[in-house]
Amino acid sequence: MGDRLVVLYNDHLPYNRERIESLARTVYATEEELPALLPGADTLLAWWPLSPAVAASWPDDPAKAPRWVHVAAAGVDPYLFPALTGNPDVVLTNSRGVYDQPIAEYVLGLILSLAKDFPGMWDHQRGRQWRPRDSERIGGRTVLVWGTGSIGRAVARLLRAVGMRVSGAGRTPRDDDPDFGTVHGPATLRTGLGEADYVVLAAPLTPATRGMVDASVLAAMKPGARLVNVGRGQLVDEPALVDALSGGRLAGAALDVFAQEPLPAASPLWELPGVIVSPHTAGEVVHWRHDLAELFLDNLLRRAEGRPLRNVVDKEQGYVR
Question: Which one of the listed residues 70, 141, 153, 232 is annotated catalytic?
Answer without folding.
Answer: 232
